[in-house]
Amino acid sequence: MVKILIRPVRIEDAQGMLDVINPIIRAGGTSAIEVEYSLETQRDFIASIGPRAACNVAIEEASSAIVGFQGYELHANLPDHIADISTFVRIGEKSRGIGRQLCDFTFKRAGADGFTEINAAIRADNFEGLAFYSRMGFRDHSVLRAKPLKNGKRVDRILKRRPL
Length: 164
What we know:
α1 (14-27) packs across α2. 29% of the residues are buried. Helix content is 29%, strand content 34%. The longest helix is centred in the middle third of the chain and has 15 residues, at 98-112. β2 (54-60) and β3 form a beta hairpin. It has helices at residues 14-27, 39-48, 98-112, 127-135; strands spanning 4-8, 54-60, 66-73, 82-89, 117-123, 139-148, 154-163. It has four helices and seven strands. By secondary structure, the chain is an alpha+beta fold.
């Protein structure tokens, strides 16, 4: 496993988070997010994290670079005891244990925030993401059929859940 530090996000992490997520958005095919974030938008997101929500960053000790981040929050379509999670790991850094380390930290934190389950919505064509969440103990729960993308393509979203 790569040596990393996991900690709660800070405003000054905004650019490092953009360096992770925007290349993923540009590459397409894995994230439901289709529009890149600006520095202002990312800072606003960090500043708006409220109660029963969190974002944690993975920082590689050797370089001090953000190599991934993971957040959870309440979602309007989920009961109050289930958090919704999202995970982003820098392109080229997968299979180094970053996602697992983020999950270990996030699961403890979400449990302390009163959640008893966590939900992940993954594009059905994101085979790496589906496999990752399964390895983290998530099990298939339901399917949201034919959710449209900006280009008109329709892709199912697989909902996976895990008890905390």
